[in-house]
Amino acid sequence: MTGELLEIADELYGLAPGEFTPARDAKAKELKGSDLSAEVKKLRKPSVAAWVVNQLVRHETEQVEQVLAMGEALRAAQAGLKGEELRALTRQRRQLTAAVTTRARSVAAGLGVKVTPAVADQVEATLTAAMVDEDCARAVRSGLLVAALASTGLGEADVASAVATPEALGFAASPHVVEAEAPPELHVVPDPEADRKARDAAQQVLDGAERRLAEASEALAAAGKEVSDLEASSMQVQAELDELRGKVVELEARFEEVDEELADAEDVRAEAESTVAVATKERDAAAAALDRLQG
Known about the structure:
Blueprint: H1 2-12, H2 17-30, H3 35-41, H4 48-59, H5 61-78, H6 83-110, H7 117-132, H8 134-142, H9 194-294
């Protein structure tokens, strides 16, 4: 039954958001009386972010596989890397997930769903989780997500509740196949609209290039914002460090002043102690002389 359930789920989670529930209920009704019917009825509608990732897996299968393969390679190399190398890899990973998130938004837009910034953040977090955590990668590859994922790579991520069924881990979503159009019939006579068709084809190429440029520009803007934020943080930390250094110089100067004052005070105290000792001897001598005269 597991294989049948996964096949049904694979079809359902490839549908548009508004089509999922009616299609699921219709399938459960079709299977009424079987154990499979109850299992189908339990399948949860995916969140918008989960749906976007599911469609990315189906429509951009090769790109997603490259992301997951890079995540696997980074996890394998991470143990032996030094701090600077790890920071460089982290920057690369962020740039990659940002670019793929941009592509995911385009896929969703092509399917009639507008992705808000909040949903885009969840999509990017899910892709990041897939790169740092092996179980999250398996969940993404399944194309059966019902909720977004989050993982830092430390500890176990809550994957079981984020997929339609536990058996989804290890399953791979069926890629979306674009049916090829039937080849046009060939005619000996020249096509009177050849020029227009050529212009239309050229316009399509231009539109595609402009779309890819816009996506790349958006990814560049995101990376530029991160650089600007980090530069601002660096300047703030530098300013605080300069302030602390100035405070240290001031305290060192004050320490020298107090140390000199302490030395002078110790000299005065020593002189006073000497004077007290001499006066004590004079008093004792005078007292002894008086005692002798009185005796």
